[in-house]
Amino acid sequence: MPRVNTHNIKGEKIGTAILPPEIFDVEMKADLVHQAAMAQMANRRQMVAHVKNRSEVRGGGIKPWRQKGTGRARHGSIRSPLWVGGGVTFGPQREQVFKKKINKKMKRKALFMVLTSKVKDNELILLDKLEMKEPKTKIMAEVLKKYPSVLVAIPKKDENITRATRNIPRAKIIRADSLNILDLLSFKYLLMPKEAIKIIEKTYVTI
């Protein structure tokens, strides 16, 4: 059974906690983590670049000159890709789809693998509780100052914590039921109160 130290909001060690092994003690498979991360990045991708093909270019409704007798090459439309201002061949289109499908069980297993690696690398910081009566960035900065890059997982929406954290560089707030591979891999440390473990267990194990 994996164990981690628990701390108070000042960073002082106050005890230990047992973590659910089905989430925080699974076998690591780098290929599966990579597959899940690539799928998430592909599904976030939005196609912005778009060029007009010959059917979308304006004009060209009439043959530019007659077929024979001019001494020039035959052309049927100024919208041809051969003409300056004509359509573009094989250019990027907004209709391109980059989405990748991945099995839900595989995605969930990959998430558990990353959480396990956080525990084994001592990158999971567990607090007894995380509460703020008012949104003070100074207080939150003091809590996070030891961690150069930290993802803070909270059990439920908390406007005070969110507002206190949003201006701190290399820190991000996320709800425990919205944990994902990319955010966990993008930040070195994962900080959360003990209450968040129950939310993770309820969201990803009991489904």
Short characterization:
The longest helix is centred in the middle third of the chain and has 17 residues, at 104-120.
Mean pLDDT: 93
Give the biggest beta sheet.
Answer: 6 strands, mixed
**What would CATH call the homologous superfamily of the largest domain?**
Ribosomal protein L4/L1
Order of helices and strands: EEHHHEHEHEHEH
Estimate the strand proportion. Answer: 5-15%
Q: If you consult CATH, what is the topology of the largest domain? A: Ribosomal Protein L4, Chain: A
What is the structural class? Answer: alpha/beta
Q: How many domain regions?
A: 2
CATH architecture of the largest domain: 3-Layer(aba) Sandwich
**How far do the termini sit from each other?**
22 Å
Unreliable segments of 5+ consecutive residues: none
> How large is the count of helical segments?
7
Report the principal-axis shape: elongated
* CA-based gyration radius: 27 Å
CATH level 1 name of the largest domain = Alpha Beta
Helix content: 25-40%
| Secondary structure tally: strands | 6
Strand order of the largest sheet: 2-1-3-6-4-5
Description:
- With 207 residues, this protein is of the alpha/beta class.
- It has two domains: 3-45 and 99-204, Ribosomal Protein L4, Chain: A (3-Layer(aba) Sandwich); 46-97, no CATH class.
- Helix content is 32%, strand content 14%.
- It has seven helices and six strands, in the order E-E-H-H-H-E-H-E-H-E-H-E-H.
- It has helices at 21-24, 30-44, 104-120, 137-144, 159-165, 181-186, 195-204; strands at residues 3-7, 13-18, 124-127, 150-154, 171-175, 189-193.
- Strands 2-1-3-6-4-5 form a six-stranded mixed beta sheet, sandwiched between helices.
- Helix 4 (137-144) crosses helix 5 (159-165).
- The protein is elongated, with a radius of gyration of 27 Å.
- The mean pLDDT is 93.
